[in-house]
TrEMBL record:
The chain crosses the membrane at residues 34-56, 68-89, 109-133, 145-162, 174-198, 232-250, 289-317. Keywords: Membrane, Transmembrane, Transmembrane helix. The keyword Transcription regulation does not apply. This is NEQ160. The keyword Cytoplasm does not apply. It comes from the Archaea.
Length: 323
């Protein structure tokens, strides 16, 4: 029942967004509304999934590390959030039949901020949970590709900026490749990194009493948002670009392989045929412009995020939290 209600709300919102974009305006209010809506949904889902996994895992294995349980919670939330992600992307792809480049880019911006809300929910709720338990696994967290090695993270310098920028661009490249081969399912990589990043940060923050630990986490989050928002919008732009390329080139390639008997046709692929047909009918010239614009947008956002992170966020956090 709740899932059906959520789907209807999203569907009605997409219709309203479509109407706005058709008139040549960007749906700013609706974008903020959906961002907040998806943020709270993913935030609450992550906490609920943690509670379920906590009692289930502790029943079998007492005193399990909190960060491991938080990562296991992804088993519950990933399928739900992937459904939302897939609906947003299908809506974007469907519009390619009739949209011009400007309309497609406006829709892409709307989808990017929607996905950002889905990412920030698990990130902030995971940090809150791990702060309450104050036990995490930093080694596990370092498998995240979101942050570089942080031994010298608070070194404010041009070399550190170049290190962060190079790392983030390489992450974007990896995410692009994963999205090409996995399609919208690659979003689980970002959800995993949301939890792993929260684990890494909570381990970095000073170990104090619970009230101060929670305050430090909230303070760190608020101070980090100015660089995290453009940075992760940049990652999501590469993710969205990879998903588009996946439908535009990779899926038709698989169709050719199936027609020639090199791959077995699956029921899952049959469900994608309509989306593939939509993309194939899109003008090739516009397709090239869209790919170029999304690539440039992703690079610019990542560069802006790295500048703010190294020269603004890092010195403020170091001064206030005395790290």
């Amino acid at each position: 029942m709740l899932v059906r209600i959520a789907e209807e709300i999203l569907e009605n919102t997409l219709i309203r967004v479509e109407d706005k974009i058709r008139t040549g305006t960007f749906p700013t209010f609706l974008t903020i509304q959906v961002f907040v809506y998806l943020f709270f949904i993913s935030f609450i889902l992550t906490i609920a999934a943690f509670v379920i996994m906590y009692y289930l895992v502790n029943f079998l294995i007492p005193n399990v590390n909190a960060s491991l349980i938080t990562l296991l919670s992804l088993v519950v939330i990933v399928p739900i959030l992937t459904i939302v992600t897939a609906r947003l992307i299908v809506w974007l792809l469907e519009g390619f039949r009739v949209d011009n480049l400007s309309q497609s880019l406006r829709k892409s911006f709307f989808v990017l901020f929607s996905l950002l809300g889905l990412f920030l929910g698990p990130f902030i709720s995971s940090g809150y949970i791990l702060t309450l338990f104050q036990n995490s696994t930093p080694v596990l967290a370092q498998t995240s590709f979101v942050l570089p090695a942080i031994a010298q993270y608070f070194s404010i310098s041009i070399p550190m900026f170049l290190k962060v920028l190079t790392h983030n661009l390489s992450v974007a490249g990896v995410l692009l490749l994963l999205a090409i081969f996995l399609g919208e399912d690659a979003f689980f990589i970002l959800l995993y990194n949301a939890v792993a990043l929260a684990t890494l940060i909570t381990d970095l923050l000073p170990k104090t009493d619970l009230a101060h630990a929670i305050a430090n986490w909230l303070l760190f989050t608020i101070m980090s948002l100015p660089h995290m928002i453009p940075e992760f919008l940049g990652f999501l732009a590469f993710y969205l670009l990879g998903v588009y390329i996946s439908f535009r080139y990779w899926e038709p390639l698989k169709e050719w392989l199936k027609e020639n008997g090199l791959l077995l046709r699956s029921e899952v692929y049959k469900e994608l045929e309509e989306e593939i047909d939509i993309i194939e009918r899109w003008q090739k010239k516009m397709s090239g412009y869209y790919v170029l614009m999304m690539f440039i947008l992703g690079v610019i956002l990542i560069i802006v995020g790295a500048i703010i992170e190294v020269f603004v966020t890092a010195p403020i956090i170091r001064a206030i939290l005395k790290i």
